[in-house]
């Protein structure tokens, strides 16, 4: 039987601004990436998201991003590898403190948005992020874009790495995600998105925007928690994957 982890970016509310249906979505996923205050989230939201993740026995990960609340961490910034290292260590530490107060453990780290995409291609940034994760704890799993500079850097330093694929994003011929600034970057048809993840899990490939097949490894599937129909899609994805005899289990 095939198996795959389903992860979702949650805890992305801030102050009076509410984003996503955190508790409801947690019932359909196996790993959660919790925003750490730079691109989204605040201390109260972080604490509550950790509490809910523990309630539903979902594996917890830090979701460090660029310090850009206005742009939701999706705008690139010219940062040095040292700055990337410091940002990641800082944000892991913030979430780790909440976990310590609840006698819980962190499973993984997954960079967010522009930081994630920059590290997928920039070797120096990728190595800095992998080093940051390793230095905090070599037991953490690093989530990164399948077959990217980030997963390569994680494996090189000795981290356990989960190669991540996306249900609602289109791919380029080089295996990168189509930038959100370009047309057709997002897949809005649920059935199309489901068929894409089934193909990635079962066949290890995805059809790029250029019409070529790209080989990739699908250890974990990302579902975005900020989408308008995120909860309904999470429900449908779980149902369809089980029907395809794909077991949904946290990554090990």
TrEMBL record:
**What is the E.C. number?**
3.5.2.9
Show the Pfam families listed in the entry: LamB_YcsF
Q: Which GO terms describe its biological process?
A: carbohydrate metabolic process
GO molecular function annotation: 5-oxoprolinase (ATP-hydrolyzing) activity; ATP binding
Report which reactions are catalysed by this protein: 5-oxo-L-proline + ATP + 2 H2O = L-glutamate + ADP + phosphate + H(+)
Top-level taxon of the source organism: Bacteria
What is known about its subunit structure?
Forms a complex composed of PxpA, PxpB and PxpC.
Q: What is the purpose of this protein?
A: Catalyzes the cleavage of 5-oxoproline to form L-glutamate coupled to the hydrolysis of ATP to ADP and inorganic phosphate.
Q: What's the protein here called? A: 5-oxoprolinase subunit A
NCBIfam families in the record? PRK05406.1-3, PRK05406.1-5
What sort of enzyme, by top EC class, is this?
hydrolase
The major lineage groups are: Bacteria, Bacillati, Bacillota, Bacilli, Bacillales
Record-linked HAMAP family: PxpA
- So what family is this one in? Belongs to the LamB/PxpA family.
What gene, per UniProt, encodes this protein? pxpA
Alphabetized, the UniProt keywords read: ATP-binding, Hydrolase, Nucleotide-binding
Q: Which InterPro entries match?
A: Glyco_hydro/deAcase_b/a-brl (IPR011330), LamB/YcsF/PxpA-like (IPR005501)
């Amino acid at each position: 039987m095939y198996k795959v982890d389903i992860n979702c970016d949650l805890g992305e509310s801030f102050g009076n601004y509410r984003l996503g249906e955190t508790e409801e979505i947690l019932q359909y996923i196996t790993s959660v990436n919790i925003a750490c205050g730079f691109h989204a989230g605040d201390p109260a939201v972080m604490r509550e998201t950790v509490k809910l993740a523990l309630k539903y026995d979902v594996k917890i990960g830090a979701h460090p991003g660029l310090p850009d609340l206005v742009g939701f961490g999706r705008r690139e910034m010219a940062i040095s590898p040292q700055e990337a290292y410091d940002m990641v260590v800082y944000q892991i530490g913030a979430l780790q403190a909440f976990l310590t107060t609840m006698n819980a453990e962190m499973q993984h780290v997954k960079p967010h948005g522009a930081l994630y995409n920059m590290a997928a291609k920039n070797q120096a940034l990728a190595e800095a992020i992998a080093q940051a994760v390793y230095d905090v704890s070599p037991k953490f799993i690093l989530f990164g874009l399948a077959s990217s500079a980030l997963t390569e850097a994680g494996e090189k330093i000795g981290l356990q790495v989960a190669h991540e694929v996306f249900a609602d994003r289109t791919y380029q011929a080089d295996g990168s995600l189509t930038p959100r600034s370009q047309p057709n970057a997002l897949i809005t048809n649920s059935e199309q998105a489901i068929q894409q993840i089934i193909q990635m899990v079962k066949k290890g490939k995805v059809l790029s925007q250029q019409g070529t097949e790209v080989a990739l490894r699908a250890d974990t599937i990302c579902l975005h928690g900020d989408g308008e129909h995120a909860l309904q899609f999470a429900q449908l994805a779980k149902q369809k994957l089980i029907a395809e005899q794909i077991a949904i289990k946290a990554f090990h």
